[in-house]
Amino acid sequence: MELDFGPAVRDFREELRDWLADHLVGEFAEHRGVGGPTDGAAWEVRLAWDRELSAGGWLGVGWPREYGGRGLGLLEEIVFEYEYARANAPYRATGNALDLLGPMLLKVGGEEQKKRFLPPILAVEELWGQGFSEPGAGSDLASVRTRAERDGEAWVVSGQKVWTSFGMHADWLYVLARTDPDSVRHMGLTMLLLPTDQPGVEIRPIRNLAGQDEFAEVFLSDARTDAGMVVGEVGQGWRTAMATLGIERGTTLLPQQLTFEREAESLIELARERGALDDPMLRRRIVDAWISVRVMRTTNLRTLAELTAGRTPGAQATTAKLYASTRHQRLGHLVQELAGPAGQIVGADYGLDTRQRSFLLSLAETIYGGSSEIQRNIIGEQILGLPKEPRP
Ligand SMILES: Cc1cc2nc3c(=O)[nH]c(=O)nc-3n(C[C@H](O)[C@H](O)[C@H](O)COP(=O)(O)OP(=O)(O)OC[C@H]3O[C@@H](n4cnc5c(N)ncnc54)[C@H](O)[C@@H]3O)c2cc1C
User: Fold this and answer.
1) Ligand 1 contacts CB of residue 359 (under 6 A)
2) Which atom of ligand 1 is nearest to the CA of 132?
3) What is the C-alpha separation between 152 and 7, in angstroms, rounded?
4) Fewer CB under 10 Å: which end of the chain, C or N?
C-alpha cells in the first residue's frame, strides 16, 4: 500500500523514513510487527522502543509543544501512523495513554493536569490503565458501582474494575466512579486519576486465550487520590468518558488495517503452498478476505480524507469497527482451516506462531471497544434511525 500525501508533508515523511531506517534495527527490527492493542508480547523490548521513539521526538506528533509534543497537524499524524505501520515497527506499548488518555486530557483536562501528566506519557515514564469496566458494567457502562467519597482534600475510592488492559504495568489508572451515592445510571459519575502504588490498590492479572497475562482485575479498597484529580467536572464523568470513547479512531485504525493486509497476503501465500487456490470454494473465500481488507482501507481513507478536510466523518466511520473486527475473525478462521492440523499444534510453554496468536487475539476484537451487538444497536439507532431498543 503506497499513499502520496502531497508536497506539504514530504520533508516530514522523509525525516521519519530516515529515522526509522536508522533506529528500527537490531532487537527492535527483530520485533517488527510484534504486539497489538491487547497483545503484551515482548513488553520490555516494546517499552525500550517507545523510549527510543520518545528520544527521537516521535511520540505525540500532534500534541502541543508545551506538553512535550511536536505541535504538528492532523496530516502529519496520519503520515506518522502510516509510515510507522508501513515500516512494521513494534506496536507501541504506551498505546493506551497515547491514543485515549492523552487526547482525553487534551480535550477536557485542566491545565495543571495537562502539565503534570502529558510530558511523562510522552517520555514513557508513567504508564496508564483504563478503569471503566466492572463485573456488572461493560456494555452497560452506566451501571458503574465503584464509589468515590470526598475526605478532606482527597477522594477515597472502593470497588472492582475488570479487563484493565496492561493493568499490571500501570502506574496510574483513569477510573470512572460514582461520586453521588443516590444517583443512578449516567448521573453522579466522576472521572478520577488514581495512582496504583498504594495499599488500597490490588491488581491481579487475568490470563487470556493466547496464554498471556494481558489484562487484569483491579480491586480498590479505600484507595486515595487528591481532590484535584477529577477530569472534567464532578458528576460529569459520563460526559468525560464519552469524550474518550468518541475520540476519532481514523488514525489509530491505520496500523491495524496494514496488519490485516499483511495477514491477507500471508493467507494467499499459505493457500498457494497448500494448493488451495485450485479449489473454487476456497478460492472464493480467499478473494472475499482480500476484498474485505481493501474495503477496510478504502473506508479508512474516506474517514481520514473527511477529517483532513475538516468535515465530520460519515456513516462509514461508525460501521468500520464492526466490519473490521468481524472480517478479521473470518480471515483468521480461514487461515486456521488452511493450516490444517498443523495450525493446532503449539510449541513448548504454549508457544504460538504469529498466525495462531493473531487468530486467538482476534476473538476479543468483537468485544472490546464496544461489542458487535452494541455496534449494531448504534448503527441501527444513530445511522439508520430505527426505533431505540427498550432501556431499563
Ligand atoms: C481484550 C480486552 C481488553 C479490554 N480492555 C479494557 C480496558 O482496558 N479497560 C476497561 O475498562 N475495559 C476493558 N475491556 C472490557 C470491555 O470494554 C468489555 O468487555 C465490553 O464493553 C463488553 O462488556 P462485558 O464484557 O461486561 O460484556 P456484557 O456487556 O456483559 O455483554 C455480554 C454479551 O451481551 C451482549 N449485550 C450486552 N448488552 C446488549 C444490548 N443492549 N443489546 C444486545 N446485546 C447486548 C454483548 O454484546 C455480549 O455479547 C476489555 C475487554 C477485552 C475483551
Assistant:
1) no
2) 11
3) 56
4) C
